[in-house]
TrEMBL record:
Species of origin: Flavobacterium cupreum
Record keyword Hydrolase present: yes
Stretch forming the signal peptide: 1-18
Taxonomic lineage from the root: Bacteria, Pseudomonadati, Bacteroidota, Flavobacteriia, Flavobacteriales
InterPro entries per the UniProt record, alphabetical: Beta-gal/glucu_dom_sf, Galactose-bd-like_sf, GH, Glyco_hydro_2, Glyco_hydro_2_AS, Glyco_hydro_2_cat, Glyco_hydro_2_N, Ig-like_fold
Pfam family, one: Glyco_hydro_2_C
Every Glycoside hydrolase family 2 catalytic domain range: 306-595
Protein's UniProt name: Beta-glucuronidase
Amino acid sequence: MKKLLITLLLTFSILGQAQNQNLISNVPNRHTTSLNGVWNYIVDPYETGYYSFHHDVYDKQEKPSKAAYFSNYHAVNKQELVEYDFDKSPKINIPGDWNSQVPELKYYEGNVWFKKSFDYDLKTQKRLFVYIGAINYKADVYLNGKKLGTHEGGFTPFNYEVTSIVKPKDNYLVIKVDNTRHKEDVPTLNTDWWNYGGITRDVTLIEESASFVEDYTIQLDKKDKNKISGFVKINNFNPAQNAVAIAIPELKINYKGKVGADGIVKFEIPSKNVSYWSPENPKLYEVTIDFNGEKLKDNIGFRTIETQEDKILLNGKQIFLRGISIHEENAKGGRANSEEDALRLLNWAKELGCNYVRLAHYPHNENIIRLADKLGLMVWEEIPVYWTVEFTRKETYNNAQNQLTAAITRDKNRACIIIWSMANETPVSDARNNFIKNLAEHTKSLDNTRLISAALLTQSGDGFGTINDEIGQYLDIIAFNQYLGWYGGNLEDAEKILWKTKYNKPVIVSEFGGDAKAGLHGEKNERWTEEYQEYLYIQNLKMIEKIPHLSGLSPWILVDFRSPRRLLPGIQDEYNRKGLISNDGQKKKAFYIMQDWYKKKIKD
Ligand code: GCB
């Protein structure tokens, strides 16, 4: 009994540690080895590799069975019964979703196991971490048969330390991925995008010293533009080595500080002659953090973003957000991840005349965020609190908050991010109001330098569109989605429709639009034609121009994207066709309406 208790305690504490391992930021600039490439996979709809025939969980057993797939067991003689073999199983490219790579898995929602073997020569005194950019949705991760942890949430990174597990030769990293949708998850059962399953972002080994810089914020001070402030956090801090230096040579900054007993040093550095980051001047400074002689580099832009009554101010000057919404999907209809995917999407946004993109409806990959920083596109980043998550459930809230924390940890040094969005089109209730309020407060506690918003729904009646959602009181920007001429309303009436809101805050139209199949032509009142979509844009823009406090828009959407809700044969064929550009790259007529409108806006 005592032995059992100790084993149980050990199991829980190990799992607990794995769950809570702190996220390492700025991975692209660290000493890393990529595990991307070809992996083996086993499709396991009954979770045969996870449960015994009486449904005991193998990874809770003291000595897991060789039938557990994470054991990666191989028969030692010809008589032995082993019913799986990763090395003889099919191969798939990682990062990449299974739905777009394997035709038989196009609609598959369930469990798939992945395995990658590797060698690693880890010197003594060094530490090693496995970092995973994202897995949709739930991941159980094992190295050399040992469980590292479980992670939930399809669009955020996580990492585990593997220093004591890794061997010089023949390591096997096994990951069970489950993309089954559940009501209580974030997002919930119902979305308007494809539930791409798999290891959709990079898998990386990070090598570090015993103590190292885990995370930091280096940003312009919220209150004083002549100061750079933030913190540096050391992992496994050793008081004997407490000196941290931050250098920004172009600004002649050479800061030296001492880490406190909590492993953190907070700083405020006077800074003069900063060339502020903006779409016209996406200036990034080379920053070096030196800890124990080890240098970590980053490229950071400095700017302020704030609201003053109903205006958004970038570096103290009013701006208008000329935006477009974007899903994370590539040209072939799978999850986008590469720099090439990011360049394709953001170049189109630039061509449209944008200075801003709404990356919907979940945190996108780090490549696109870093590229937006370089290209000078401001970003709205969002978590998938979409439509109806279970607002009354504590675990659902914690899950949403964890996703938000990971997104902020990864991206908080990117000047391009100006808005954290808490949710999209959530139905009003007390529980939902609390949920979003708590997320907003959490966000401010982690990052008080950016603006908070959420895409809201509106009410209509008495000739007005009304934006009075109670949650507006916790938001810096009032954003709302509306679909005049598509889900309701008459396009002829557009100019007569007036909008009102009780908030004296900046307003953004976070979505409007309608479907058109590229190449389908007809009259302006014929649905699905490019002419209908073009007219819808012309009329909506006439209405939008008159919205009080209007500070920006992000029409829905840049490119057609896959959605299982969109089934009309010959037209939708499993694509949401609201793109201004088709999935095969054809610009529709409405693209040019929006482009002209933005050209005029620049002149105003
Ligand atoms: C919305 C949602 C978006 C959908 C879009 C549509 O309001 O926010 O996720 O894809 O409408 O096309 O209906």
